[in-house]
Structure formats: C-alpha cells, structure tokens
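It is worth pausing here to work through a concrete case rather than discussing structure prediction in the abstract. The textbook approach is simple: state the sequence, then state the predicted structure, then interpret. We follow exactly that order.
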Amino acid sequence: LKVAFDMRLFLTTISIFLILTANSQIKVFSDFESGNVELIEINDTMNSIVFEPSLKNEQNITKCWFYFGFTGHNTHEEMTIEYLYVSSVMAPENPVYSYDQKSWHRLTAEKSQINSKLVKHKFKGDTVFFAAGYPYTYTRMIEYVDSIAQNQHIDTTTLVYSEGGLRVPLLAIRDSSRNPTQMVWIVGRLHAFEVTLNYTLEGFIGFLASENSKAKRLRKNTIIFIVPMMDVDNVVLGASGRMQKPVDFNRDWSSAPHWNAVAAVQRKIAESNNLYDYRIFLDFHSTYPGTTKPHFGLFNSYKSKEPERENLKNYFKIFHKNAGYKLSEISGFLQKNYSDAYS
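Step two, the predicted structure:
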C-alpha cells in the first residue's frame, strides 16, 4: 500500500520502540495496516504495558485510536494494559483483543486517572493484538467492495485516487431496469478512527441491494451513491484523522476543498444534480462500542434554519416510525445512548 507519511516521525517512533523493547521480554509492534501505538513503559515483572496512541500526522490534541500487537508476556498471569487518551474526544470504553486479527473479544476498561484507563486480563495466546475498537482496514473495505461488484443492483467504480495513491471506491445502487429520478448520497469514514461505521455500512449496503420490498421500492426511483471510506490514507496509516493537518476531512466541505476525495464528491454531486433530484446527504460517523456518548445528534445550528430544520424533523419522524423507538431532544441534541451498540 502506497501512503504518504512523515519519515522523521516514523524513524523517531521506531527509535522509541527499540529503546523501550531492547531489554524487555515483552515486545510490542505496530508495523501493520492501521497499526498505532506509542510506548511509555514496559514492565516484565509486573506483566504490564503503558502506552498512548501516536499522533502521527495530526495536531497534538487527538489521541484516540490505537492498534498494536505484543508478545513475550506471561500467559499464566493476569496482564495489565494501561492507556492514555484525550478525554475531550472519546474514551475507548471497551477495547478489543485478538490472537489472529480475525476473531475479536471485548474487554471492559477501568478508569485509572482522569485521562487514562486500564484493562486486566489473562491473555492465553503467545501473540496478542489489542485495539481501541474492532479494526476495519482499507484492505477489508476493498475486499468487500470487490465481493459485491457482481450484484445486479450495484455499480462499483473508482471515485478518485487519494493523495497517497490509493483507490477510493464509489458505489451506485439502483434498479438498472428503470431510470431513477432522484439521488441520495452517503459517505463514511471522514474520521479514520471511527471504525464501527464501516460495519454498519456493510449491513446498510446489503439491505439497499437486497430483495426487501422497501429496498426494491427505493431503488425504483432513486440512485444511491455511497463512498464507504473517504480518508483512506489515514485508515492505512493508523492515524485518527480527527483535527489532522492541514484540515480535518469533516471540515473540508468548502468551495475549494483540500482533499481529493472531498473535491471528487462535490464534483460528482454537481454533475449528478443535472440528472437527478438531490434528496438527501448522509455522513456516517460512529463512536466506540459501549460508549455513553450520543449516537445521533441534531446540531444547534439547524434549530432555527429552514428548510434544514423541517427536513431534519421529517427525517427523524420517519426514523422513529421505522426504528421502533424515539430519540429524546436534550440540550439541543437528539440522542440515544447505547450501553452496547455493536456486537
């Protein structure tokens, strides 16, 4: 995978690894796709690791994604893993571990100090992978997109290539036997660390392309454009993407966007707007599983703006009807908290 990154930062990180692990039995590594860790301390006697997420190419306010492996720990005793994070972003409440990077198991973190948490667990495998949430890599996304390319209702193309030279896929879901009159746009992973949204999107895409009566009715008149992963370079790099330099993907929707993917979506919308009635734009985000943060938000700026406010009211009315529960409006936000949002 070709991804642009800061060579000085890479060499500094490797140097820190060598210093911390040179005389340690426990070895930590993150030299794989989406890997991220910055070691603070290894204690073989205590069978413990202390670390924080590496900022990589980001401003020094966002430490929320980590994903690494370790070996050399005592498999017969409980191990303590403590991590530092930025509390103003999101606290990884339920980190996960795996022995093969395929089957993942969730742990419950304990609060250690204001900006740190820890987990204690007896890891039985000789090699353990540890992450803030279920990883969803760029490679998995490409494999998924390629696997659904033969679906009769899905057209897969390349929207654009990223700054690092990676393909950014675009899906178009429609009834090929009819001429759609309206369009819907869906984008995901504007923040690279928000991994769980891609699992949600897989299910969403599967529904939209299914023979479900509601999906079939939608496809009759509507073409649904989907970009499953926008910030592909940071997903591969293992950076969170939030508040990155020179601009956050989610803040780049201007008349002169910086990032290739954002500019390409804007161009495609403008071109398609001459063909279809532009109905709705959905920007998929997600929090860590098990968090107490709101999963659905209605920003205050829309409370008094029309027609945005009326459109949102109609959207949530339909949502309430189909979801089977209502979202309560608290302090300007429509929200529902989940104790265990993903399985």
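Step three, interpretation. The mean pLDDT is 85. The two ends are 30 Å apart (CA to CA).
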